[in-house]
Amino acid sequence: MDLTLKIWRQKNATSKGKFVTYKVTGISPNSSFLEMMDILNEGLVVKGEDPVAFDHDCREGICGACSMYINGRPHGPDKAITTCQLHMRKFKDGDTIVIEPWRARPFPVLKDLIVDRTAFDKIIQAGGYISVNTGGIPDANAIPIPRASAELSMDAAACIGCGACVAACKNASAMLFVSAKVSQFALLPQGKPEAAERVQAMVAEMDRLGFGNCTNTGACEAECPKEISISNIARMNREFLSAKVGAQIPKEQAGGF
Amino acid sequence: MAELNSKIPKGQLAEKWTNYKANTNLVNPANKRRLEIIVVGTGLAGASAAASLAELGFKVKNFCYQDSPRRAHSIAAQGGINAAKNYQNDGDSVYRLFYDTIKGGDYRAREANVYRLAEVSNAIIDQCVAQGVPFAREYGGLLDNRSFGGAQVSRTFYARGQTGQQLLLGAYSALSRQVKKGNVELYTRHEMLDVVLVEGRARGIVVRDMVTGAIERYAAHAVVLATGGYGNVFFLSTNAMGSNATAIWKAYKRGAYFGNPSFTQIHPTCIPVHGDFQSKLTLMSESLRNDGRIWVPKSKEDAEKIRQGKLKPTQIKEEDRDYYLERRYPAFGNLVPRDVASRAAKERCDAGYGVGDTGLAVYLDFSDAINRLGKKVIEARYGNLFQMYEKIVDENPYETPMMIYPAVHYTMGGLWVDYELMTTIPGLYAIGEANFSDHGANRLGASALMQGLADGYFVLPYTIQNYLSDQIRVPKFSTDLPEFKQTEEEAAGRLRKLMEVKGKQTVDSFHKRLGHIMWEYVGMGRNEAGLKKAIVEIAKLREEFWKDVKITGELNEINPELEKAGRVADFLELGELMARDALIRNESCGGHFREEYQTPEGEALRDDQNLMYVAAWEFTGDSAEPRLNKEALDYEFVEVKQRNYK
């Protein structure tokens, strides 16, 4: 396959970026999208040009590092996969492909297609955990958990933290990401003791970091490579409301719990 | 030759760890606050160690090269984690898990370490459930198990095909909690370049900030390496693109011994290689072997027709299929350990029975299981794996058998550590895949997650205190010490040297050539002539690399080419050590198969008389040959036998 690529190039966080056009030829339809990028970069290096920088690591759809906005869609045209799982057979010979980084204020561009997603880590640090120390834990089977709850919890826990939901959202909302973590714990008995504090702390941190609000367009769910359901947002809203109505103010608001 | 002291506690096998814990030195809470620990890596071992040490009160700095700790490659482990809970009432016990691991490792692991691993395995499951890891459950609400290779019990806990992800996110959440509390300082997009020794002890590290390119120094009372394995020396492997050996290799060059570097695990169920441009290989979980049956055609003619696309696998009649694992190993069948399954696949393909375009593939067939259990059950068990396969290969595994072939997956070798997980450099620890300790010559499925978390949650937090207890009067180190300056200058100088080569060939092209040498001569089948050839060719390639590598960009910016170059430069040295280690090991054991040493039936032939030892290699200089030290393995409690899965 021969392709034309329009790729966002930006030297660093402070410089202005622009689209640059490249041609790649003889690409096998069986190669992955990132292998196509490797071939482009190999050619650029040979010519002495700076290769296109992009985040990637596991290349099997689970680490959540890869983050390309391809032809206007996070992770490209195929459903329920990450960029690294996208294969060139999804494109046609002669196609022009536009490749951009995630665009959202809380995810500043560091170089080319690489963005800074530490905001997601900060949201987890605000409360995305169950406060147990290592050791002294009762037997794993001490508390039976209904299979359906465990499965729903797993559905939510499948989030890979890639940020496609934020990139897809016109408001750059992180509600799908946050609600997935809130739901994972809200559905398990182990998560109950801190449920109210958790949802409030995570939502507050999400707001502080400048993520937008949810207006229920469903773009996040449609583009999520792990098909995390938007119903998690509804569950988070319920959790948030009942936490507010319960009005138990966390004692250590800033210090975690 | 230095004396290797493995510090194994005295007493009966089942009492060693209890005795150790009862008698080890501890650090009181007030002193813990004054002691700093550096942990490099945020995978299962690194994140669990950093979180647990911080919970105890130590001040921890945790580094990773990824943009977030959650992306460490432990995340990609699919199948599960072993524990000796015996929830299935099928006869499991701590002893049996210990025994299976020792036997699976082909009697090349330390008894005391492996027993401890089995002993703490149950606490790991308790810990993870308390953290909110959504393991698979039965309808009654209790935890479910599946079986894995090399075991006759069902002891593997799992979270769909994403067990590694869920366990890592559990450890990451514990780590995040400590970051919030201010007990862990997190440094992402930082790559360790070297370890700093002061008066013979590990006292800090030198890192590169991968965003600004700045070279930075960090000091601590102890340094823990949890940097994973080195399978990427083969270029194509199931490791992440960034997985590298730099941290452990630099530690080796500073005096830490390297244990059994040639012990590499070639995983039997990976998606076959499809072309020259391929960048990595994808694993299909071993759990698939629970329900999938592995076969090739009985006749070479059929195999040839399949390769040419004239015949489909579904057209081959039942009686014309060779279920070679079931034929050769009736007791374990498709669930033989990984090394046995990999070699058997290679044997069939080398003999001309391979399928796929290249002839380097065998079938993994689910039609029997689908007929027996229904498509729904199979979908519930393996749906995400089948989907992944279809995305990559463009074939539907519900309708036509999967094609699989072995690929490099895990390295049992790593830094030599004693019972306390300390390397031969005082104050430098290695945990998880980065050390050599628990898997011998072959790791059983679902044991890597167990070992990573055992080391991080339940072993290191005890053993490191024994070292730190006499460090409480040692004040915080200044990174202005001459040792820090000098190490930084050496690390920076090496990067400058790489940039100044200004040659013609790309880093990847060198990495691919190294991978070809390694796969050809230091891969699944090894022999004396090939290994000698590999040693010469790797040295030549290394020389060429330093004369002709081409790196674009600058030192002081995000520069993936420079990052890769540093890692490949280290692989070009490590690859040679792997070949040397394979050359002195004149036997076949576990994943190490020397073609000269096999039984008439083609099974591995160990030499327990002469080679029942850990090869601990000592660096003696860039232009000198490494020195071999030996730690004899005494099997005090287990009777050493020829492995038999028949």
UniProtKB/TrEMBL annotation, chain A:
Pfam families per UniProt: Fer2_3, Fer4_8
Keywords of this entry: Oxidoreductase
Biological-process GO terms, alphabetical: aerobic respiration; respiratory electron transport chain
Keyword Iron-sulfur on entry: no
All residue ranges annotated as the 4Fe-4S ferredoxin-type domain in the record: 150-180
GO molecular function (one): 2 iron, 2 sulfur cluster binding
InterPro entries, A to Z: 2Fe-2S_ferredoxin-like_sf, 2Fe2S_fd_BS, 4Fe4S_Fe-S-bd, Beta-grasp_dom_sf, Helical_ferredxn, SDH/FRD_Iron-Sulfur, Succ_DH/fum_Rdtase_N
Enzyme Commission number: 1.3.5.1
Name of the featured protein: Fumarate reductase iron-sulfur subunit
Native source species: bioreactor metagenome
